[in-house]
Design goal:
The protein has a two-stranded antiparallel sheet. By secondary structure, it is mostly helical. The chain is built from 16 helices and 2 strands.
């Protein structure tokens, strides 16, 4: 089992609100990012000793993997009594998830806090998130930032990303766009897709970095190719407009299609226009255009011009498009 903890990101990124559930990973030496050598005045955070990993055949984790949560809890509590940091984190995970026991965020926060004190990096991220949200413990963004900073000092990519977002917003940390950009870029370079998306937004807007359309397109491309749906839409738009790269509708369409299929209303409406006009090598198909327009309209996108084109279709094509749109929407409900 991967012994890290899934960390729900609780702070809003610089981009267009794409949420992320990311895995806290790695203990990578942090190069100059928070060491004081980067020209930033903030003091370097204290380093956190690496938690000693449990053996791969650890009985508590084996029980957890098999869904034997009460057994895992009992075994983990015994290991925790011996001061094992990861055992504390496993106990917290069980209470946080309500796995075999009643969901108890207060108890989970207490166990995560102790695991963090003992040096477990995923626990630092987890208690940082709980502090940021005020879940199971009093809301305290300053304390959350401190937890992220400790984990970031070990080189953890997700911790750097979360910390960068707090610097960006001036929330729990003094507002410092340049410091924010450094942390976010570090995470982006370690393949955190949401960080790549937000770094692209920073380059596009010139926040914390010099505005650079090529860099914006490059980082958006990386996030899109990792499957981040919001990035796929934004990258498709960049390709269609030639922002930071050569205009290429044919390359944009697969990203646009994927984003549309995943519920991005703006992508759905743009895809409707692609089918309406027969752009990018896609055959002109007014019925398919009407289908995607109806889906986008249901998602809240206004487009009077395209609505008029749909209304002008023969009744048979309109009924076919309405049926196809309804089938698509019904399918999405079954996938939730």
């Amino acid at each position: 089992m991967n012994k890290t903890v899934l960390a729900l990101l609780l702070v809003t990124g610089a981009g267009a609100g794409a949420a992320a559930v990311l895995v806290a990973t790695g203990q990578i030496a942090l190069p100059d990012l928070v060491s004081g050598k980067s020209g930033v005045d903030d003091p370097a955070p204290a380093e956190v000793p690496a938690a000693k990993p449990l053996p791969d055949d650890d009985a508590a984790y084996m029980a957890f993997d098999q869904g034997q949560y009460l057994t895992a809890l009992s075994l983990a509590e015994r290991r925790a009594a011996l001061g094992d940091p990861q055992a504390h984190t496993l106990v917290a995970r069980i209470y946080e998830g309500g796995l075999g026991v009643g969901k108890d965020d207060i108890t989970a926060a207490r166990w995560y806090a102790r695991a963090a004190e003992l040096g477990d990096i995923p626990a630092m991220l987890a208690i940082g998130n709980m502090l940021a949200e005020g879940r199971g413990i009093g809301k305290d963004r300053v304390a959350a930032a401190a937890m992220y900073e400790k984990a970031a000092a070990t080189g953890d990519p997700l911790a750097n990303y979360n910390l960068g977002l707090l610097f960006l917003k001036g929330d729990g940390k003094p507002e410092n766009p340049h410091r924010a950009a450094k942390h976010i870029q570090y995470a982006a370079e370690k393949n955190i897709a949401q960080a790549q998306y937000d770094l692209a937004a920073l380059y596009q807007k010139g926040v914390g970095v010099e505005a650079d359309a090529i860099a914006a397109a490059t980082w958006m491309s990386k996030a899109a190719r990792q499957g981040l749906v919001s990035a796929q839409y934004e990258y498709a738009v960049m390709l269609m407009r030639g922002f930071g790269l050569k205009e290429d509708e044919s390359k944009a369409i697969p990203f646009l299609q994927t984003a549309a299929e995943n519920g991005i209303a703006g992508a759905q409406n743009r895809l409707a226009w692609i089918h309406q006009e027969g752009a990018g090598g896609v055959p002109k198909d007014p019925a398919e255009a009407a289908k995607w327009r109806l889906i986008a309209k249901a998602g809240g996108v206004a487009d009077e011009k395209l609505d008029l084109l749909v209304d002008a279709l023969p009744d048979s094509q309109k009924k076919s498009a309405q049926k196809a749109a309804q089938e698509w929407q019904d399918k999405q409900l079954t996938l939730r």
